Amino acid sequence: MVTDGPFPESKELLAGYRMVDVESEERALEIAAQTSAAPGPDGVPIQHPIEVRQVMGAPDTDL
After folding, report:
1. Inter-residue contact 31 to 22 (CB < 8 Å)
2. What does the alpha-carbon distance between residue 54 and residue 63 come to, in Å, rounded to a whole number?
3. What is the pLDDT of residues 27-44, one digit of tens each?
4. Mapping DSSP to helix (H, G, I), strand (E, B) and coil, where does residue 13 land?
5. Nearest Cα to 28, choosing from 9, 53, 4?
6. Exposed (0-12), middle (13-18) or buried (19+): which is 55, by Cβ within 10 Å?
7. Domain residue ranges in the chain
8. What pLDDT, on the 0 to 100 scale, is given for residue 40?
9. Which of 12, 15, 16, 31 is 20 to 30 A from 38 via CA?
10. What are the backbone dihedrals phi and psi of residue 19, each rounded to the nearest 5 degrees, phi first?
11. 26 falls in which pLDDT band (50, 70, 90)?
């Protein structure tokens, strides 16, 4: 078997990411649903799966 590098071949692809600052997980899921329902190049909703992850911010510090 020949591969193009030291990593296993994969069909997965990260096409991009979007960071949003929201007050709740529900709002983040609403935005993800709207993004997935956006029309693609042919006008049909893209309906691609979107993964929602929480990103931890820096802790508040008093300087």
Report:
1. yes
2. 26
3. 999 999 999 898 988 888
4. coil
5. 53
6. exposed
7. 20-51
8. 84
9. 12
10. -110, 130
11. very high
Report whether pLDDT(14) > 70: no
Q: Report the alpha-carbon distance of residue 9 to residue 2 in Å, rounded.
A: 10
Which amino acid appears at position 47 of this protein? Q
Can you state the percent helix, strand and coil of the chain, rounding each to 5? Answer: 20, 5, 80
CB 9 within 8 A of CB 3: yes
Q: What is the pTM of this model?
A: 0.62
Closest CA to 32 of 49, 13, 7, 12: 49
H/E run at residue 27? helix 25-36
* Average pLDDT of the segment spanning 1-13: 66
Chain mean pLDDT for the chain? 82
